[in-house]
Amino acid sequence: MDIIILVEDKLDVNLIYSEVVEDSTGAVSLFVGTTRDNYEGKKVIRLEYEAFKPMAEKEIKKICQAIREKWKVENIAFHHRLGVVPVGEASIVIAISSEHRTECLEAVQFGIDTLKKSVPIWKKELYSDGVPEWKSNKECPWTKQEEQKSIKRKVLNSAATECIQIKASNSELDKRISAFMERKRAESDVFNIQEFCHRLPLDGSENSCARTEAVLISRKDSKSHLKVSRCVNMWGPQTHSEVPALSSATTQLKPTPAIQERLQNMEKHLGLVKEQPIPLDVYGRLKALEDRILHLESISPEYFNGSLNVQPNNRDDEDMMAKIDQRMEELRRKLL
């Protein structure tokens, strides 16, 4: 039998003992928790207990079930007092009876430890100085979490001063950041003047304008101020297709040898030969080629402007030869 009672009246230990003792039991173990008159050097006048009874009774019932699973006991009684408990009076009584003393002794210890850990009963201590204080049980998991957080805060706050590199105030840090930004901005301005205006910053007037003073100097192999380099990736992400393979269902339509050759050349050029099986249907093969072209244009619009699709331009070749001749003539003059 399990007896669970939460009352505001004074607890009678003899009555609770009589509730659990039977002729068939050979041992009864009692735990009685009382109110002491001091705590950490302060004089305690009384304790006040509060609880949400339905939840507390439910949790105590779980403790009784756990005890019966672990030990062979006969009767279990949990009596807890609520409200005001003066000094010297019992606030909790746990009584357990069993055939042998070992079971009831171990069960009582388990019962009080688990009750302190999980049952929602709150305790407030009133001291002689008139300042009450709510107390938490050290067995509670949330108490341990708070202790760990407190230890972490102490460790962070007690960092060695020699490990701190910057000890300036917030205003001083803001001033340093502003000075750093101004210095970097000035360096960027000097570099831009040297790069685009081709003069030292102190050579010109303060009322000059970069829009009018900037000079375009063509770079080698480029028509703009900046050097431009183009490369053709023969292998890489641009040559891999993300288009899923089409169905390999065959049809009666077969291309002529001329069309077959032209399709094979395009498939080889776009990298479709080794990536996935080529459908035998002419229209399917054309659709795969179109999807491949659209994919390449979407990830790299300049792909088809590279050297793979550059049309021969005789005028560009003539200009290039003229530049080469001019360069060779300049080298001859320097050597002579």
UniProtKB/TrEMBL annotation:
<feature type="binding site">
    <location>
        <position position="116"/>
    </location>
    <ligand>
        <name>substrate</name>
    </ligand>
</feature>
<dbReference type="InterPro" id="IPR003448">
    <property type="entry name" value="Mopterin_biosynth_MoaE"/>
</dbReference>
<dbReference type="GO" id="GO:0006777">
    <property type="term" value="P:Mo-molybdopterin cofactor biosynthetic process"/>
</dbReference>
<keyword id="KW-0963">Cytoplasm</keyword>
<protein>
    <recommendedName>
        <fullName>Molybdopterin synthase catalytic subunit</fullName>
        <ecNumber>2.8.1.12</ecNumber>
    </recommendedName>
</protein>
<keyword id="KW-0501">Molybdenum cofactor biosynthesis</keyword>
<feature type="binding site">
    <location>
        <begin position="100"/>
        <end position="101"/>
    </location>
    <ligand>
        <name>substrate</name>
    </ligand>
</feature>
<comment type="pathway">
    <text>Cofactor biosynthesis; molybdopterin biosynthesis.</text>
</comment>
<dbReference type="InterPro" id="IPR036563">
    <property type="entry name" value="MoaE_sf"/>
</dbReference>
<dbReference type="Pfam" id="PF02391">
    <property type="entry name" value="MoaE"/>
</dbReference>
<dbReference type="InterPro" id="IPR028888">
    <property type="entry name" value="MOCS2B_euk"/>
</dbReference>
<comment type="function">
    <text>Catalytic subunit of the molybdopterin synthase complex, a complex that catalyzes the conversion of precursor Z into molybdopterin. Acts by mediating the incorporation of 2 sulfur atoms from thiocarboxylated MOCS2A into precursor Z to generate a dithiolene group.</text>
</comment>
<comment type="similarity">
    <text>Belongs to the MoaE family. MOCS2B subfamily.</text>
</comment>
<keyword id="KW-0808">Transferase</keyword>
<dbReference type="GO" id="GO:1990140">
    <property type="term" value="C:molybdopterin synthase complex"/>
</dbReference>
<comment type="subunit">
    <text>Heterotetramer; composed of 2 small (MOCS2A) and 2 large (MOCS2B) subunits.</text>
</comment>
<feature type="binding site">
    <location>
        <begin position="123"/>
        <end position="125"/>
    </location>
    <ligand>
        <name>substrate</name>
    </ligand>
</feature>
<dbReference type="GO" id="GO:0030366">
    <property type="term" value="F:molybdopterin synthase activity"/>
</dbReference>
